[in-house]
């Protein structure tokens, strides 16, 4: 009887103001934090290009703080920080929902063709130290691979167990193309995108690459000499 008391206990108070989760979609029952942690700056290989950098220690500190606040949803990509991002995140993989994208600049890795997707996903699995990816985005629509090749290839990855869910994340792609791809998947018994038509959005760069700061954060940046996203220009963080 004493065990049943715990069963009927009220839901614990959230660990922070953001620790309130929602089901990813009607076709994906995993519970995620609505706020994703973008991981483009996790890693230390892009500082010379003006994209900021975080070494392993500071990256783990950020990931730990995100997790302690209730965060469990991380967005990364195969090529971020010359692959450092996925490598660092791999150490926290078991406690997070990881969304990644197949992309790179090498010819055989680039684009949405089947060879590129298979190579990129296998590469991500090694760096993330896992046997599967929770959510896979299509990073962009390259207009070389057909709808059939893209959706058939994504379906193969799901059937192989390498990917659990396909996000409707064809980043920077017209809505009609996403609709066409999803309809093809439904008509041919393939894995459709799990978030689609009014259910959710995953915007990127919502803090303007670090430009939107509190007064305290601006003061800390001046004191530490942190350069931020210099790729956008020397005055990238000037008031507008």
From TrEMBL:
Transmembrane segments: none annotated. Signal peptide: none annotated. Residues 34-198 form the NADP-dependent oxidoreductase domain. Pfam families: Aldo_ket_red. InterPro entries: AKR_Detox_Biosynth (IPR050523), NAD(P)_OxRdtase_dom_sf (IPR036812), NADP_OxRdtase_dom (IPR023210). Residues 216-240 are annotated as: Disordered. Belongs to the aldo/keto reductase family. Aldo/keto reductase 2 subfamily. This is NADP-dependent oxidoreductase domain-containing protein.
